[in-house]
Amino acid sequence: xxxxxxxxxxxxxxxxxxxxxxxxxxxxxxxxxxxxxxxxxxxxxxxxxxxxxxxxxxxxxxxxxxxxxxxxx
Length: 73
Description:
The chain is mostly helical. It has helices at about 5-10, 15-30, 40-70. The protein starts with a helix and ends with a helix.
């Protein structure tokens, strides 16, 4: 299971750092706007949103910093 290409990709970008912040933020948004959705809807929705945010953080934050650090070291 850990050799699965897609699971490795999730581990490579910041999914592990973003997921709890994303879940809390999305729950707060749903609560603020008084939206009550089934877990069958929220679970895939949260997953997709958090994957996109994690990929964005990886591409525009982690990779440039890692590249800059490699050049300096």
